[in-house]
Amino acid sequence: MVKLKLHTEGQPQGVAPTLGECSGCPTLFLAVLVFVMLFAETAASAEMSKVRGYFTLTMRGFSEGPVFSEQSDVKFQPLFNAELRYQDDLSDGRLVKMILSSRIQPTANQHFSDHIREAWIGRLGTPVTWKAGILNERWGVLEAENIVDIINPRDFVEDFQGDAKSGIPGVSLSYADQSVKYRLWLLPYAREQRLAEGLDRFRVATLPFENPQFESGRSQPSAALRISTVKDDLEIGFSHFHGHARFPRFEAVLNGLGPPTKLTPIYDRIDQTSLDLLWVGGGTLLKLEGFGQAGEKDDFFAIASGIEHEVPALFGTRKSLTFLTEFYYDGREPSADIPLAVFQEDVFVGLRFSFNDLDSTEAQIRLIHDLEYDSFFVDLRASRRLNGVWNLETRLNLFIDVDEDPALMAFRDDSHLELRLTHHF
């Protein structure tokens, strides 16, 4: 799935840290976080009461050794995640918000990494709202994957399923009248995806990554426009994005006439126009996302739809059961010049069992089936609050019959069990 090109050795390996990221070293954030965890609950000052966050201790156990020889072969891997949130209302309706995250994992390629997920100042009001700083936005209505979501690049080191996203510098402006909301984003700086490599599990490639290349340069601005409205029970979102793609294609770097030694992520300039719909009818939700994308290498469209139905008061109790079904189709043709689409022709089925008790007890069954390659990804989850500040969660992820699936074949030995203990403050 790569295109070869000649390149001489001696270039720096890996992806260099970019704005909003500090990798490979612990920072002042860790010291601040420890202080907050120790004193936030008992502090009497008003400023400390504006600080929130959590830390999570995770033990991840793998059933098999890694696929690639460079990956860590430690089967029981601990990791520490923390997030610090600060929000304060300033004068004249202005608001400042900051979300910092940190990760320590001795078995990872980067033992320490810190990130600014959000850090902005703005004014939230009517009819005009604005934000300036490092932004984090989410578009879409579906459960398994939001295919229209394009403002922020994904962080696949933090979460291999792509739920975590990196903050991106920019300015957002919005105007809302009685029925329609208009939002504009101006993004002066592009960021790449964080991809697993080296010691990391959940790698998508054998070779290390070269520094990323952006078609028009990292500092070439991007822009997005979104119009949303609500008509009775129907929510409608229409969006357009112009800028560097958020999913790269890869070119192989050759060492003279020998075999490839590295992969270079390439981010092309694209235009993407999308639509998302959400219809709410009692306990039933009907969902739709679709987009058309045009770029130098390919023009294609993708569409996904789903239904979510909740059965409340199960057997006359507080418990509820929610059924989810979604179908994904991506029209791009696999080639060396086109980024690999994970959800190309897939069905997602989910079941969420909520106890609706004081401890927020919940269990989920999530299954993704690729119709073309007949592969399966199973995600089983259960969580429960232990008290007011502690939460326990367990996850079992299974990759089944993925040897022929180009999107999942690198994960074929990465089935694992996770136990997470989280403290909120």
How would you explain this protein's 3D organization?
The structure is a single chain. The chain is an all-beta fold and 425 residues long. Helices cover 3% and strands 52% of the residues. The protein contains one helix and 23 strands. It has one helix spanning 28-39, and strands at residues 3-7, 21-23, 51-62, 76-89, 94-104, 112-123, 128-135, 168-176, 180-187, 213-214, 222-231, 234-244, 249-255, 260-267, 269-281, 284-295, 299-311, 320-330, 345-354, 362-370, 375-385, 390-400, 416-424. The strands form two sheets. It has an 18-stranded antiparallel barrel. Strands 1-13-14-10 form a four-stranded mixed β-sheet, with no helix packed on it. Strand 19 (345-354) and strand 20 (362-370) form a beta hairpin. The longest helix is centred in the N-terminal third of the chain and has 12 residues, at 28-39. It is globular. The termini are far apart.
Number of helices: 1
Major sheet, described briefly?
18 strands, antiparallel, barrel
Instruction: Determine the oligomeric state from the structure.
Output: single chain
Instruction: Summarize the helix and strand pattern as letters.
Output: EEHEEEEEEEEEEEEEEEEEEEEE
Number of DSSP-assigned strands: 23
Give the N-to-C terminal Cα separation: 45 Å
Q: Structural class of the secondary structure composition?
A: mainly beta
- Poorly predicted regions are 1-17, 23-28, 36-45
Shape: globular
What is the CA-atom radius of gyration, in angstroms?
22 Å
Strand content: over 45%
Mean pLDDT: 88
Measured as a percent range, the helix fraction is under 10%
